[in-house]
Amino acid sequence: MENDTQAKITLLYPDRLPRYARSSDVITTPLVDAALGSQGFVSGYTEFAGGAALPFHSHNCAESVVVIEGAAIVDMLDEAHPLRAQDATFIPANVPHRFRNASATAPMKILWIYGRTDVTRTMTETGETQFITGEHRTPASSKG
Description:
This protein is mostly beta strands. Helices cover about 5% and strands about 40% of the residues. It is built from one helix and twelve strands; from the N terminus they run αββββββββββββ. The termini are far apart.
């Protein structure tokens, strides 16, 4: 008899998944979300070309980010914090922040995990809010 837990396991291969351009230099690959059955978190990768940065934004939930490759800088609470591969962050809900590549030439990659499945991104400069996960995913190429 098949184990119910095994029947729900999904293997994800990022090189086979859709990617979303947040800008010409920042590409996001969503991994786990509610469409796969997750009830408590979503995750994905974001890759930054040399010198690339995200604009300041916040989320409606906590976020953890792990630097997978390269060197990053996270700007939050009026402070810049350098990060290297395997360093991690915890960012509470509604705290404006941004990640940027510390190198002008080498790529940088992060793994992000949000603490809920209906995640929003609110752009600090404009106040625009987007759904960024699950069925309501806004293509990341549209402003932020």
